[in-house]
Amino acid sequence: MSALAMESFWLNKSACDDAERAYYEKLSGCKQTEEKSSPASDEVDLFASDDEATEAPVSVKPAPKAKAEKKPEAAPKKVAAEAPTWPNKAECNDAETKFQEELSKNPGALRNKAYEERTFIMLKPDAVQRGLVGEIMDRFESRGFKLVACKFMAASKELLMTHYSDLSKKGFFPELIRYMASGPVVPMVWEGLNAVKQGRMMLGATNPKDSDPGTIRGDLCIDVGRNVIHGSDSLESAAKEIALWFKPEEISQWRSAQVEWCYEEEELATAPAPVASHQVRAGQSSVCSDPWDTSHSARQVLI
Ligand code: DAT
Ligand code: MG
């Protein structure tokens, strides 16, 4: 160390010592049990080598706690919160009550009926044989669609011919029926916003050679005659197919625990800010319970 540096070091030594002492005092003040067992000493040798008799640096007597410290901090003065304006509060509360009444009658009911659109999806025998059932169902579940019916069955040729009746004149029809009856299938009903159209998008084009990567057919099959999955192509055919494959009692009414995380309008427990921008934008009645409940304020901010 140069002479100049040493000089500068010694000039600062007492300031450094003071800072170090203050630090250890503070530290020992936090660790009451340790300091009791430590030998009392007023000095700390910060420059002691390891060879010297060890003296714990945390040996400074804790500064006696000032009585003032124990006093609870004065509570911050409450600033009177400005009451938010919410002109249609009564209407909103009425709507919420009415909705809860309806929901208790039918646990599957959603605020927005568009979220209850249903499509008929069927995993074909090749999907079952190839162990793709889980993967394909996962895609619908992960997307946010709700499974309301599902079974694992061997379909009769009669049922399959009815299902594919619009294709009865096609040359591939006999082989289609034979293949569809050659092993178990997994007919299902999935529910959600635009379930029919989105379901078709997820399936991809009929012929896998034209299916985009990322679609079920685009990712999981090659040949049109083994295209792993069926999906309704319109609302009408969805209704027809669901009725063909399922009895009404085989379709479950249930409200998914994640529904409010998939659909903004389905939030029940949270109270959006009285005049939330999205509600104003959508021009819809508010989804609200108690506007003064701030327990979900973080989420309100995120909305
Ligand atoms: P999709 O299943 O996409 O609704 P579709 O209703 O026209 O298609 O036909 C029903 C099934 O028939 C289809 O998934 C696979 C089979 N298929 C269609 N065209 C075919 C062809 N040219 N050769 C063999 N099978 C075919
Ligand atoms: Mg079709």
Shape: elongated
The bound ligands are: 2'-deoxyadenosine-5'-diphosphate, magnesium ion
Beta strand %: 5-15%
Determine the structural class based on helices, strands and strand pairing. Answer: alpha+beta
Cα-based radius of gyration, to the nearest Å: 35 Å
Low-confidence segments? 31-44, 48-60, 276-303
H/E element string?
HHHHEHHEHHEHHEHHHH
Could you tell me the number of beta strands?
4
Largest sheet geometry? 4 strands, antiparallel
Mean pLDDT: 79
Strand order in the largest sheet: 2-3-1-4
Question: Secondary-structure blueprint of this entry?
Answer:
Layout: H1 3-30, H2 32-37, H3 67-70, H4 89-105, E1 118-123, H5 125-129, H6 133-143, E2 146-150, H7 157-163, H8 173-180, E3 186-191, H9 195-203, H10 216-220, E4 229-231, H11 235-245, H12 259-262, H13 277-282, H14 297-302
The structure holds 2'-deoxyadenosine-5'-diphosphate and magnesium ion.
2'-deoxyadenosine-5'-diphosphate binds next to loops.
Provide structural commentary.
- Helix content is 42%, strand content 7%.
- A four-stranded antiparallel sheet has the order 2-3-1-4.
- It is elongated.
- It starts with a helix and ends with a helix.
- With 303 residues, the chain is an alpha+beta fold.
- 2'-deoxyadenosine-5'-diphosphate binds next to loops.
